[in-house]
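Methyltransferase domain-containing protein
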Amino acid sequence: MSSEDSWLKNLTRQKGGFWEDLYWYDLQLERRLPQARTMLQQLVLSLPPCGGKQVLDLCAGTGRVSAAVLAAYPTAKVTLIDASTQRLTVARQRLEPQKIVTHWSSLHTYAQARDEEELDVENQYHFLFRATWRALRPGGHVVFADHVGQLGMFQQLQALKRAGFEDVDSSWRVDDSFVAGGRKPLA
């Protein structure tokens, strides 16, 4: 057993814990990120009507967002993408009675630079948002919940605008947690 397996790792406030363990992640999320539950509620409340619409849950994890969307809009067609096949397995179990599509993929495959250079965090977000913009139909929305970590909320809003989104704004923010989004122009 290495020191990485010690329970003391769980006691460290900054960057501590076993985030890579999917069951620990689900168990600890609301304790480690106190605004997580409210942020999820605010995300769903910020969505345009989703009944019968396609909804992409990017970085879906264990399916918490998809479960909340389907509770609010049972006729939504949800697709989950995550880099962890294990987390998607938990999401499938959580959402089992629903018809969902899951897909394993690393985000870097969607947000790669053409010349494979190392990108700073701001440009990584720009490429991710640009890939999301390309995937949306005209008039489609991107709405997401995040906490200030790698890139602040204002910089993320600017990255959305640079990627081509309009109606970019934040609908909710408390401390370092926020919900934001934008819309792909109709034309």
